[in-house]
Fold:
Amino acid sequence: MMRILKAALVILTFIQINVYAQSPLVSSGSIERHVSFSSAFVTPRHIDVWLPDGYYNDTAHYPVLYMHDGQMLFDSTNTWNHQEWGMDETAGKLIKEKKVKPFIIAGIWNGGNTRHADYFPQKPFESLPDSAKQYLYKSLRKNGTDIFHGYTIVSDNYLKFIVSELKPFMDKTYRTKKDRNNTFVSGSSMGGLISMYAICEYPEVFGGAACLSTHWPGIFTLENNPVPEAFFSYLRAHIPDPSTHRFYFDHGTATLDAMYPTLQKEADLLFRERGYNIKNYESKIFEGANHSEAAWKERMNLPLEFLLSK
Structure:
């Protein structure tokens, strides 16, 4: 009996490895998956690199868009909620229509239970008093599950992984344009927060960020929540130079996005005070849109055109 159980475990493990090794199915371009990309800073995770049509047939160099929650970007048949961003369809269509420059996407898988700890901006968190920190770590989702799953916030390490490990790998492995003007970062919800934080922490690396449905509350309540003001205090001191950077923000008004309008308005004001204008800053509201990959898919053309327009 024990031999049968061991054999079954081996078969299940083999199947799981093969599933994770399989690249997503895409309708344009192609995917190269780097399985369990190792790091000195964060837990290993897959990297799905989307290359546009024609990449293998020329010698051109391409801008790179680094995107969080990489497992949700391309193929809904393998996602937990059967939704996707449709990045291959949208990027391929915009490139074909010459609305954006051909570019590469580096889809960084999240770490599962480490996601919130990886994506929560660390310096604003560390500015809070100890009582507030403990309050955050004990906070729960509305369904009663633990937000941080026992992990401590390590987003500074997550950014070090991207900047000092992943980007050098991408620049060595693929024909990339390495400079700030051709290096961008994007995500939604907590991925929107870490995208904002990435460009503020590494303004010499990233020239633009697209932050969709940015989760300004950090947790899942607005009542007695010290997080937004900590983020805004951080921004007052760290918003990068508007002459060399671009920001795109948006949000819907339904489900979780209903928490964001007032907070996004405050963030918009900070950027305007810093000197951002319609040329380098967009903040859009989508009435009735909810907090989902399906909603972000519907409007992803807008941040792509904003960051990568010809």
The chain has one domain: 29-308. Confidence is low (pLDDT under 50) at residues 1-19. The first helix runs from residue 2 to 21. The radius of gyration is 19 Å.
